[in-house]
Design brief:
Rossmann fold; 12 strands; 5-stranded parallel β-sheet; 15 helices; homodimer; alpha/beta; 2 domains; 416 residues
């Protein structure tokens, strides 16, 4: 297994009756979720159709493109950003993901790109998300002024619902290249659909390896996902309303951002499936190791005992030796002969032990090595875990009713 | 005032007796903190010595330098990163802040720099922080191999305690250029000392403007800081153990990271000043507007009522018009004639109202415009607010006893 869950001092929880009952329940839920045709994300690891579609679309795009500009937000952005930043060295094109409407950023992106060498991929499942729509209006206009209508239309890929919505109409009427977001996959579960697959594949990432890793995880990682779900459930019920992801890897940091959306939107819910008010949802917090040892560990150790900690550690890292310079000075020589990997691991272990010594609940994910397969594994593992945890709460992990009101008020303020 | 605190629906809290008593107490604490010679950060806005020192050191460095590599972590890194990312267009040199020991990142930074054109600024108040020490060993060696000893030593600036510690000894014995971290200013309060002033000034930032803004805030912003401190205190006592900073600005996002360290390390404490166990400390969470409306607002509105929200909005932004493209299609024309700034503001207002309609406590910081003076103002405002809040808790906001144990365990694991 490329991702191993180590319960450390919590190992004995597996002997508790409550844990065992929840685990059994969770395993049944996991099977139910994987069987349910209305839930699409579990089928994606076996689905090579979207990779083929992405390749076919790529072939129809103009030659000489060096930049892909993704216009999307939330689930339409976080997956591509996560994989891009982890595998930046494998990219064959610059991949810009514009997931805000800050005029400063839009202005800077506009200045930085050459329309002739850029393809726009606008992504919105509903086809009416205001951020990508407004960005699309802006960049279409920018391209049209410079390249003319025909050349601009050749440089657009629309990713949206297969038949419904405003963007689908645009794609059809203007004969713009398009891809589908499957109806049974929500935005935050969509990284292995064309939402994530097209931008990544087009920019040189071997997305088949992502799928391969996700499939391995699906076939052999159910217990890991369910154990994680049960722990999330149990510790939240015990008053830990904060879940800290402490990620000891610069490259995996954006995986944390992706996970926080998945976790927050799926599990932060007011009503259960029967319409009964339940109000649940831990708040995810992201910390980077070792950096945030110098920023958050004071609070984590001495502040209130309101957190469940999930550490993430990469076992195999590149070897970079700490050389012997300044050994004649006090405090410099004990690092001689060590690698930065050993230093990072020792600091991770030290921080975990210090938290455990203070009685903080803590688990550790050991990732064998960072590669596209383990990334695919992480994606599937945490998608399934989150869905199972939602079922344990008896809430719907796949909707997000709480985001509508703010959108409506904003639209009204804009005179819609 | 360039930073205005709007209490919105919480405005009436000012009529509460408890608020008023705490506010009076807080005002006295603020005066006490500003008067106390043992607390140095409040004197920094009037202190132009460090700018002069930075300029003097800059003049003694070799010509033709295009990159500054800062080796520091926590409070030795976050301030420079915050200002750098907000004013990236004003930088005259590339400013790399290496605040992790991930071998992947160190390897990449090593590949990306040209030692001949790079200056190293190693920062550690104590002079023995393991991360900058190990990085310093590594980059010193890298430079020495390429440039030789003499040219390498010319390209180093050490920022540490004025007389104590291992790094001070290195600076003295090897006659390396050095700067002081004043003894009465802790790492997380040190951005306006040589810790932040040197890297920023050397890379082209007019740090006098930062000080000017901080001074303006000091002279006229005490009520704002104390109001914020009282609200932090009161809502934490009422069970809001999470404080969300919702920042509607790409450029200000790292201000949030800086603030989270200040807030977490200063206020997350187990014992009060009398050694009595009190255990306090809200956990800060960072969200970016509008982006995280599509990631966290579901949880914020429908999840538990355990959060105090502080929104940050920039009033004056550049005008970027949303053009009329695709107006013939449904759902595209209502944005015509609007700017991205208006869209962003409407979404901010919509999100705030939606949260207020759900009864969530929320305040709004209105920032007139982003410039170096308002940045200086933000720095002073939140440093003072955090210190005052610590005094309301009767804890020491200036220490961090909880971070030692993990460091010791790590050192032991490394064979120290």
């Amino acid at each position: 297994m490329s991702i191993k869950l180590d319960l450390r001092k919590l190992e004995s929880i597996k002997n508790d009756k409550e844990f065992q009952l929840l685990f059994e329940k969770g395993m049944k839920f996991a099977e139910e979720i994987e069987r349910d045709d209305a839930i699409g994300f579990t089928d994606l690891p076996e689905e090579d159709r979207y990779v083929k579609q992405a390749k076919a679309v790529a072939e129809r795009l103009p030659e000489g493109i060096d930049t892909l500009l993704v216009l999307g937000i939330g689930g339409s952005a976080l997956g591509a950003k996560m994989v891009r930043d982890c595998f930046s060295e494998e990219l064959s094109k610059k991949l810009i993901v514009l997931d805000n409407v800050d005029p400063y950023t839009i202005h800077n992106v506009a200045k930085s790109i050459n329309p002739e060498k850029t393809v726009i991929n606008v992504i919105s499942k509903s086809g009416s998300t205001v951020e990508p729509i407004s960005q699309f209006k802006f960049f279409y206009n920018l391209f049209e002024v410079e390249l003319g209508r025909e050349e601009t239309l050749k440089r657009i890929v629309i990713t949206t619902d297969i038949s419904k919505g405003n963007l689908r109409k645009v794609a059809e009427e203007l004969e713009i290249l398009s891809l589908e977001v499957p109806e049974n996959v929500g935005g935050r579960f969509s990284v292995l659909t064309p939402v994530g697959i097209f931008p990544l594949e087009y920019c040189g990432i071997d997305t088949e390896l992502l799928l391969k890793g996700a499939l391995k995880q699906k076939l052999s990682g159910k217990e890991t996902a369910v154990t994680g779900a049960v722990l999330d459930y149990l510790f939240y019920k015990q008053g830990k309303n904060i879940k800290v992801l402490f990620i000891y890897s610069d490259r995996l940091y954006r995986f944390g951002e992706w996970y926080l959306q998945l976790f927050g939107e799926s599990l932060g819910k007011r009503f259960d499936r029967n319409g009964k008010e339940v109000t649940v949802g831990a708040t995810g917090v992201l910390a980077k190791g070792v950096t945030d040892q110098h920023s958050q560990v004071q609070l984590y150790r001495e502040g209130p005992d309101d957190k469940l900690f999930a550490f993430f550690k990469v076992n195999k890292k590149i070897d970079v030796l700490i050389p012997e310079s300044f050994s004649q000075f006090e405090g410099f020589s004990y690092l001689n002969g060590k690698t930065f990997s050993q230093l990072m691991d020792a600091e991770c272990e030290g921080t975990m032990q210090a938290l455990e010594n203070t009685g903080r609940p803590l688990i550790l994910y050991q990732i064998e090595e960072i590669n596209l397969e383990t990334m695919g594994g992480l994606i599937y593992l945490f998608e399934l875990q989150t869905a199972v945890c939602g079922y344990l709460y008896n809430i719907n992990p796949f909707d997000q009713p709480g985001v509508e009101e703010g959108k409506l008020i904003a639209k009204k303020l804009l005179g819609y």
